Amino acid sequence: MTEVKNLEEMFQAKIDAEQKIEPKDWMPEEYRKNLVRQISQHAHSEVVGMLPEGNWISRAPSLRRKAILLAKVQDEAGHGLYLYSACETLGTSREKTIEDLLSGKAKYSSIFNYPTITWADIGAVGWLVDGAAIMNQVMLTRTSYGPYARAMVRICKEESFHQRQGYEIMSVLAKGTKEQQQMAQDALDRWWWPSLMMFGPNDAESAHSAQSMTWKIKRESNDELRQKFIDRTVQQAEVIGLRIPDSDLKWNESTGHYDFGPIDWDEFWNVVKGNGPCNKARLEARNKAHDEGAWVREAALAYAAKRKERVAA
Ligand code: BYC
Question: What crossing angle do the helices spanning 178-197 and 131-140 adopt, rounded to 10°?
């Protein structure tokens, strides 16, 4: 017992001294579990996040737009792979992690259960969803677990390109015809509140935050990051002449931040529990892709086994 206590004290001292925890280091079982939970949810979000945007690859309005969107969606697949690998360094099996997604047991970000109805939605996803993702992920480049922190450095670089491409789509539409302007405003109206929900429940309701902050897995709270995102995005909307759909939104001179209206947490939890507009379709699409990819997995395993035989001979 005393030995574990000493190990825990040494572990916390290392974190307090801003040293990274690496896969072979001793760590409390709860630290490992919490990381597996967060990193696997994050990986699943990247993978499911390809679906709403993939929906528009064949319908992008020009060859240039199509090439950019294709590259972005491929980046998300890469992020999923880095994160599944980071998760494996904690002793999990990739097969089991993916099985939990396919069976509906695992969580992924609520935002990907909303539909992308028009081309402007692709702009709104890049601008708002990737924008919210970077706001949260920049802090994760300094997370205490080495493999997660290193994966996040590259992911953040790519996410900032994604955010810029989304904002550029929105600014072109906002400068376009009346119909294009309306399309951009409509997309902002539909994606604004779900984007704020991406940061997770209010701090008082956040089950994991306190412990995750002590272990420096998280470095800023859900509410702090949400506020930073709002402050930054309101100004970006103003520049391109779009209106944030919140009648309570108001600059507060004394706090130096925007005040904003209430978030519909019932909607959030309903989506998290599987009842959002697209939860069912997303899981069906992932299961279909997994089934159709069975031959690729079989071929890769057969190739690896043959190679091993040849090396051994
Ligand atoms: N959706 O105690 P809390 C992307 C859950 S992908 C669903 O505050 P935590 C991109 C939470 O899991 C962006 N569930 O949790 C990809 C917990 O449930 P469990 C994804 C949510 O972990 C493609 C419960 O609520 N980013 O960038 O301290 C295209 C209580 O919450 C959500 C990441 O995953 C949600 N929005 O804080 C474009 C970043 N929020 O596990 C873009 C990594 C909360 O107890 N993750 N829940 O059953 C994190 O930073 C943290 O996990 C969160 C939540 C800030 C999200």
Answer: 30
**pTM (2 decimals)?**
0.96
3-state secondary structure of 142: coil
Task: Please choose from 272, 278, 283 the residue to mutate so as to test ligand 1's pocket, defined by most ligand atoms within 8 A of CB.
Answer: 272
What averages of pLDDT result for each successive group of 10 residues across the chain (313 residues)?
84 97 97 98 98 96 97 97 97 96 98 98 98 96 97 94 97 98 98 98 97 98 98 97 98 98 98 98 98 96 93 89
Q: In sequence order, which residues have a C-beta less than 8 Å from that of residue 76 and are 6 or more positions away? A: 46, 47, 49, 50, 53
**Cα(42) to centroid(ligand 1), Å:** 7
- Residue closest via CA to ligand 1's atom 50 equals 136
Q: Is 209 in the pocket of ligand 1 (CB under 6 A)?
A: yes
